[in-house]
Amino acid sequence: MLKVLLVLLACHAFTFCNAQSIQSKRTILFAGAHPDDETAISEVLHKYARLGNRVFVIIATDGKDGTRVTKIPAGDSLGALRRAESACGCKTLGIEPPIFFGIERLDTKIGTGNYFREHQRFMDSLKVRIPLINPDIIITAGPDGDTHHSEHIVVGATVTELLLAEGWVDKYPLYHFAWKKGVVSVDPGGYVDEQYFNVQINFTDEDETKAIEALNCYVTQYTPQEMKGEAVNKIKDTSNTIYFRKFVVKRGLSNDFE
């Protein structure tokens, strides 16, 4: 009887542990402006996919105007190539295929009226898609837009706006990725004073290797020299850490500014 009881207890504990393991798996959503923005935190995306979590990427635009290093003219053909590059990168990282909203642009280069229309379309698309994905964590760029890119800033601001508008701040916890001052990268960008970091995510050399491998998918956006330089920078930084700031809203009313 004692042996039977011990076996039953062991089976119960095993089932409970499995249930705990299943419950601990999370759904993570990254929101970016262009096909390649996911490369900013590739190591973290790969890490969580490797650990069994579902990782989604939403891309607002097709990046059809991204002619920085390519001779391919702006337009739908470039947009199609960039979508394929993002699909290649996500597959390499082991995450879900990217979700493209097909927003034209998120700046006023298309005219102020068109920008307002596309911003609303992006907002409406997020409002529908986020509950369907039901993420435990949302990640996007902060006020610096990662590289001060206007469309990065708009995407991060729109995600934040939506959570505030719909009362979703607690339902879908939001994290802005953030860089230390002096970080060396192909795309130099913003930084945040370290006292405001409140989350650090460590990753393995395997995650870093996959991030470097995924970067090679984006041939229309980075020259071979830039890809090599970025790989060298990643390997040289042995901290294997990316920092984040959780978006938090203080509740309660006061009668004056504090």
Describe the structure.
The chain is of the alpha/beta class and 258 residues long. The protein has a single domain, classed as Rossmann fold, CATH 3.40.50.10320. The protein has helices spanning 2-24, 42-50, 76-93, 112-133, 145-148, 150-166, 205-215, 224-236, and strands at 27-32, 54-61, 99-103, 137-141, 174-178, 199-202, 241-246. Strands 3-2-1-4-5-7-6 form a seven-stranded mixed beta sheet.
Which short descriptors sum up this protein?
8 helices, alpha/beta, 258 residues, Rossmann fold, seven-stranded mixed sheet
What spatial order of strands do you see in the largest sheet? 3-2-1-4-5-7-6
Write down how many β-strands occur, each being a DSSP E stretch of 2 or more residues: 7
From the alpha carbons, calculate the radius of gyration and give it in angstroms.
21 Å
- The CATH superfamily title: LmbE-like
Q: What fraction strand? A: 15-25%
Output the CATH topology: Rossmann fold
Q: What is the end-to-end distance?
A: 67 Å
* Morphology: globular
Contiguous low-pLDDT stretches (5 residues minimum) are 1-22
Helix content: 40-55%
Q: Label the structural class.
A: alpha/beta
| Average pLDDT | 91
**Second rung of CATH, namely the architecture:** 3-Layer(aba) Sandwich
Q: What's the story with the biggest beta sheet?
A: 7 strands, mixed
Order of helices and strands: HEHEHEHEHHEEHHE
The tally of structural domains comes to 1
Number of helices: 8
CATH uppermost class: Alpha Beta
